[in-house]
Every structure is written in structure tokens, then in C-alpha cells.
Amino acid sequence: MFTAVKRTCKRIVGASDEDMTVVTPRDWVEGITHDPMQRTIHYVTSLFPILGWISRYNLGWASGDLIAGLTVGIVLVPQSMSYAMIATLPPEYGLYSSFVGVLVYCFFATSKDVSIGPVAVMSLTVAQIIKHVNEAHPDTWAGPQIATTVAFLCGFIVLGIGLLHLGWLVEFIPAPAVSGFMTGSALNIASGQLPGLLGISGFDTRAATYKVFINTLKGLPRTKLDAAFGITGLVSLYAIRWICDRLTKRYPSRARWFFFMSVFRNAFVIVVLTIASWLYCRDRGHNGKYPIKILQDVPRGFKHLGQPTIDPELVKALASELPVATIILFLEHIAISKSFGRVNGYKIDPNQELIAIGVTNTIGTLFGAYPATGSFSRSALQSKSGVRSPASGLFSAVVVIVALYGLTPAFFWIPSAALSAVIIHAVADLVASPRQVYSFWRVSPIEFIIWFASVLVTVFATIEDGIYTSVAASLALLLVRMARPRGHFLGRVTLHNTTESSSRDVYIPIKPDKFLMNPHVKVYPPSPGIIVYRFEESFLYPNSSLVNDAIVDYVKDYTKRGTDMTGVKAGDRPWNDPGKNSEVEDNTAKPHLHAVVLDFSAVSHIDTTGVQALIDTRTEVERWADRPIEFHFATILSPWIRRALIAGGFGTGKATTHMHEEIAPVTRYHDQYIADPQHCEHEETPGREDDTEAAKGPAHVQAISARSSTEVTVQSQTSELSALMVLPETPFFHLDLTSAVRAAERGLSRVGRSKFVMKSAQPVDS
Predict the structure, then answer these.
(1) So where are the chain's domains?
(2) 521 pLDDT exceeds 70?
(3) For residue 305, what are the contacts with CB-CB under 8 A and spacing of at least 6?
(4) In 3D, which of 328, 411, 344, 387 has the Cα closest to residue 95?
(5) Domain 487-564+587-648 superfamily per CATH
(6) What are phi and psi of 562, to 5 degrees?
(7) What is the mean pLDDT of residues 330-348?
(8) Helix, strand or coil for residue 510?
(9) DSSP state letters, 92-105
(10) Where does the STAS domain lie (predicted)?
(11) Which of 53, 79, 545, 591 could form a disulfide linkage to 529, CB 3.0–4.6 angstroms apart?
């Protein structure tokens, strides 16, 4: 009963009664559900990477982490207050974000070098979101509440992406695109800080970069005393770094001392300018107004500790800004962590890093923090300071706590211009160097154009537009490369090894590129009637028609038509076949088509449309040749590709029974109602008379496979066949291209070379 039902179901769906060894969805499900308990335990423990190294923590690591943590903390305090100013938030919010970032990240990190906290680009994005919400809903929500809500929502989204292991989405944004909007953002931030550096006011410092720069030039006559502090601080920062670099080269033995002298330049400049500000302003203040702009009151400790207030109406108001904020949050961090992992010899887990960022920002909202992510400058500093593990963040957190509870009275006198100098000095390192830009051009001129477009859009519009431009252009380039990949018709070159007195055949494009290989190498075409084609991309719906057109056009140009059309009247010709005056001469000079060999060594996926394109190709070339054509496939990389090709009727060596077979018809009765009578009358075609595999029964398939692919068998010492490396059910699937071509040539010899013209009409380059 069950057998009859199974046979009926197969007949309904059109399945073959012959069982083939192919991969099934059940195999895939078993693969991903194997040992679920162990996989669950591994997943849970992987959420806390600290469990893998904390038991091996020692005093040697602690000393390195202590030095690195204290060094980063000293830099982090002034930078975080500066970045809070960029975000249009009070300076204490920068300290809140810094504390939570360095403290929480160490428990979830897979990178020892990355330092989490406020960064310039994210701060500018928060400022633009606050501006956007306030313009749409004036005086409805305070800036800190908006910033905290952004941190909560973005953190939750990134956390979800990490938990679902969707970190591979980051790979869709290439390095030039990231560098482009980072460069544009750095220029935007620097231009926005110039007015603060010079004490100029009276215009929007968060407008487009070019507008801010022009307005700054116009406002130079209004420069105030703040410029003395700002310019002095900026010049001092660069001077100290330059002097330390020179001393390091002159006295290499003391390089580490000079390194820490350079590192502490931010703190040193802030301390000196703060003392100068106190000396100048302490007796010149009236009703809270001073001759220069200073931070003034910075609350002591955590004044906004507690459950965050997430207003649904606020979420709706800033929803349109969340995508760009989320992209910046994880993109900059992943790029930084991968970079330091590559340089320092370890591998980061992108999914776990996203979890770390998500948890950090979600927990940070309890402290009133705004979005925090990886900082390139502080991460580089931490790496150079000799950090040994992620635990260095604990020591940085101690520095921030000390600053919050013990140094806030001193923060009162910090000049705002000095903080602007710190910001400009920090973001200058985010601008791509000429050497880096030139490397983009050398590697890929198209990606250089994407980089340049991203910078221009960011400078003349907004960071949001710059990010969307770089992402959209990168995805468009990816789609174009997928839809229009390269493909080549191949010829043979025989390589001789004079040392071992051996030779082997390699297959290269018949028309080799002069920039790729020696153009003077003589490339011999395959045997007459055999076509070898290599496709350099997955065989998917955007590019499948490209292969069909290439092979069919090549067949019609270089092989003989099976039906003699010279005597056919114009009225009897197909509407799309006008005929040629030289048809007789052309047909005489061309060989009959016997086989098409497809090199699938670069094909990692194939879909339904791709299989249908191959079926269409087979149909068209068989109609042109008026005879069955062998299709051989070399180097199939995936069992799913093999399954799909078998479903399309390839690989078995059996004759096609339907010239218009459709694996995915447009309509239910597609062939019955669409095919015209001229082609329908040939619907049923005879089997391949010359096809040994089709003519003989299944018992002979194994021997045929061994004969057609001798290169892929393993011979014993007694010269007897001991094992096969290809499945005998599919003799037209081959392990490599050489065996596939030789199998096609053997099929050619079986039908007799007398049927073919010995001289090939295919072009040969010399």
C-alpha cells in the first residue's frame, strides 16, 4: 500500500522512479541539529569569553593591564567630556558612557586591544538625532533623554543581531566604504570644532562641512580670547607628539619612556590650560559669565542612575534615524577589532563583539550613558601600552570613577577651546592618509570612486547621507559583479617538466589577457566539436542568462548546423533565421558539435533559474546541432549543486526526452499552450545512439565511469580498479577539468571521427 502511494505521489510531482544518491534536506537538518545539548552548552558559554581566560590570569598579565588601563583612562577622561560636547550633551554624560563601556566590555570581549566609550562619529550622529527630534517636536524631550533612548534601542538591535549570529551582515560593507565615511565624518567634526577653538559663534556648527568652514572664515574678525587657549593647546599637542617621535628615533633604547610622554600629552595640555584658565578667570567672573568659555559645573558621581525612561512617542520620532546610528555603532567597532586582531595575531568573533556592544549600551542606559563603541585612537593606545587581556578595562574604569568623584571641581575651569583642540587632534587620525587612498586606487579603481563619493557626500551633505551612499554603492557594485561576471572559452596548453620528463595539460582562455599571462603562449583549442567553458561566479538568477547567451552564440558561430537550411525557402524558415549567402561555405568549414564541458570550479551555488538556463542552453544547442549533445561538468564543489544538476537531467549520460523540458515553468501548462507547432512536433526525441551510457543498462555505468574518468580513480599495485572518487551514477560529473575534457574526447572517438571536419573553425591565438 505504501509503495503504491509513494509511486502515485512521484507520478504526480514528476519525480523519477530511479533513485539517485543526492543530498537531501534531511541531511542538512541532521547536520545543524547534531548533538543539540552540546551545541547549546557551547552557545551559552561562548557568550562569556572571560570564562576562557580568567582562570589563567596572572601577575604578568595584571602588570601589563594595569599600565595600559591607567594610560587609556587618563586619555579617556578628557576625550569623553570633549565628545559629549560634540553630542550637545553635558560633559558628565561622556564620563558615564566611558565608565560603562570599559567596565562591561571586558566580560564579553574577544579582543584585548579595543577600548569602548564615546567616539567622535557616534557623538556627532547623536547630536544630529537630537537636532532632528527637537526640530520636529520642539521642547518635548531633553537631549540626554533622546541620547539615552538611542543608546537603548541601538544596543538592543545590535544585541539581537549578535545573538542570532547575523554578524556576517557587516561584511557587506567593504573597507573603502568604511574609510570614506570615516574620513568625511572626521572632516565634518573638525570643521564643527573650529569655531569653538577660535571662540567664534553665531551660526550652526553642525551644518554641512563646507558651510561651517565658510562661516568660520567669515567669522574670523569676531575671534575671541578663547583662540589663545585653543590654538595653544592644538599646537602643543602636535609639538609634543613630534618631539617624542624625533627623540624615539634618536634614542631607541628609551622609546618606551618617550611613548608614554607622548601618550600623556592630552592630559598634560588640559591640566596646563585649566590652570591658566583658573588663574585668568577666577577674579573676572560676573554672574556665572567669564572672559572665556569654560565647562563650569560638572556634577559629582552618578546623578542619573536608574531605570531609563523610554517614551514610545520619542521612539517614533527618532525611528528614521536608528538605521544610520546602528550601522555606525557596530561598523566602526567591528572594523577596529578586526584590524587589531589581525595585527596582534588573534581572531575576533564578530557575533560576540556585537553582543558585547549591545550589552554595553543597554546596561549603559541605567547610568544615563549615551551610545558608546570602539575607539580607534584609544584602542591603538591600549595596544601600544602593552595590554595583555580585556581586564585592562577594569583599571580604566577606576580612573573614570576617580575623575567622577574626585576631580569634578577642577573640571569647572577647563576651557572649552582646549577640549575642541583635543577633539580636532583626535579626529585628524581618522582621515585617510594619501598612501592609504592610493592603495585603494591601486587595488580597485571602482572602490576608490566609492571612497571618494562617500567623502564628498559626507562633506557636502550629512554623515547619514555619506553612509547610505557608501553602503548603497558597495551593494550595487556587488550586484553588478554578481550579475555580470567573467566567463571564458578555454583552450589547452601542455606544460613539460624537463626535470621529471613529464607533462600535463592545463586549460586557459583561448584569448589570454596580456596583463594576466604571456600573450606569446600558443593556446590550442579543444578537439573539434568540443567546447570548454569556465564561469567565474555562482550560477544564480542574475547571471544565468549570460552563460546561456555566451554558449549558444559561440555554438552558432563555430559549429555546423545539423539541418541543412541552404535549400529551405524563405517562407519555411523560422522568423528569426534570415539565412546567409555563405551558409554552405560556413557549414563546410565548421565541425559538428559533440560535447560541452563546463568548469564549475568557481561555482559555489546554483539556483532554480540557473538550472533552467542550463536546460535552455542544452535545448538550444541540440536544436542547432539536430542531435543529442553531451554536457560534462568538472569540479562540482557542493552536493547541493550536484543535486540541482541531476534534477535538471544532467550528469547521468542519458538522453533528454523533452526538448522543451522546464524545471520551473512560468505557468502550469507552460509547454502545452506556449510552444508553437513547429517545435512541438519534435517534442519526443530518440535516445542518444552514440551515447554509451544511455544505450547500456545500469550495470554498465560503473565501468563507463571508470573508463571516462581514469584520472580520478585509484589504482592498486595489481593495476586493478580499487576505488572510485566519483559516484558511478553520474559519469558526466568529473573531479577535474582534464578528466572531463578527455571523457568528452573519448565520446567523440566512439561516434567516429569521420563525422567531423578535422580542421576546427575556432579561433587560435598565437
Answers:
(1) 58-433, 487-564+587-648
(2) yes
(3) 366, 367, 368
(4) 411
(5) STAS domain (3.30.750.24)
(6) -70, -35
(7) 88
(8) coil
(9) HHHHHHHHHHHHHH
(10) 528-650
(11) 591
Best CA proximity match to 599, nearest among 705, 739, 764, 727: 739
C-alpha dist (Å) from residue 298 to 78, 279, 638: 13, 19, 62
Within 25-58, residue ranges assigned H as helices are 25-32, 36-46, 50-53
The cell numbers describing 347, all together, are: 581572531
Kindly report, residue by residue over 567-613, the tens digit of the pLDDT: 667 676 776 666 655 555 556 678 889 999 999 999 999 999 999 99
In the three-class reduction of DSSP (H, G, I as helix; E, B as strand; rest coil), residue 633 is classed as strand
Q: Which residue has the cell 504526480?
A: 12
Tell whether the torsion through CA atoms of 385, 389, 391 and 393 is positive or negative. positive
Backbone angles phi, psi at 650, to 5 degrees: -105, 155
86: which residues sit within 8 A by CB, 6+ positions away? Answer: 120, 123, 124, 127, 189, 192, 193, 423
- With a cut of 60, say whether residue 677 has pLDDT above it: no
Half-sphere exposure for 324 (CA within 13 Å, toward CB):
25
DSSP annotation string for 121-135: HHHHHHHHHHHHHHH
What integer pLDDT is reported at residue 754 of this predicted model? 45
Listed in sequence order, the residues at least 6 apart from 265 whose beta carbon sits closer than 8 Å to its beta carbon are 236, 237, 240, 241, 244
Given a contact cutoff of 8 angstroms between Cβ atoms, the answer to whether 188 and 465 are in contact is: no
The b/e string for 615-642 (b: 16+ C-beta within 10 A; e otherwise) is bbbbbbbbbbbebbbbbbbbbbeeebbb
**Cα atoms in the 13 Å half-sphere on the side-chain side of 388:** 15
Secondary structure of residue 190 in the 3-state scheme: helix
The pLDDT score that the predictor gives to residue 513 is: 83
255: cell is: 622609546
**Separation CA 596–CA 744 (nearest Å):** 8
CA dist 106 and 352 (Å) reads 12
Model pTM score: 0.80
386, 376 contact by CB (below 8 A): no
Give me the residue label for grid cell 559629582: 300
29: which residues sit within 8 A by CB, 6+ positions away? Answer: none
Give residue for cell 584569448.
511
Rounded Cα distance between 439 and 681, Å, is: 61
- Rounded CA separation 46/36 (Å): 15
Backbone region of residue 345 per phi and psi (left: phi > 0; alpha: psi in -120 to 50; beta: other values)? left
pLDDT tens digits, one per residue of 198-208: 989 888 888 88
Q: Report pLDDT for 704.
A: 35
Give SS3 for 47: coil
**What confidence tier does 287 reach under pLDDT thresholds 50, 70, 90?**
confident
Are 357 and 157 in contact by the 8 Å Cβ rule? The answer is: no
* CA diameter of the chain: 111
CA distances from 426 to 79, 251, 479 (A): 8, 26, 36
